[in-house]
Amino acid sequence: MPKKVELEGGGRAPKGHFVVYVGNEMKRFVVPTSYLKNPIFQKLLDKAAEEFGFDYRNGIVLPCDESTFNRVTAFLAKHDS
């Protein structure tokens, strides 16, 4: 069964997950840590580091719109093992 990316209100991410913020509205998503080893997701993280640096205090902000993020994570959910 594929893992889901969830939009959550606040608080800590569950074990095995982490939080990212996406789009102009900074929507909060909780994603599985297994995505960290995927080259597609790593590219998003590299872009985030280029744009915001490594000491950005407001969490991991991905420089893409929400629809792009949803397409990427849908693909990853299907192909994540």
UniProtKB/TrEMBL annotation:
Pfam families: Auxin_inducible. One of its GO terms (biological process) is response to auxin. Belongs to the ARG7 family. This is AUXIN-INDUCED PROTEIN-LIKE-RELATED. It comes from Salix koriyanagi. The lineage of its organism: Eukaryota, Viridiplantae, Streptophyta, Embryophyta, Tracheophyta.
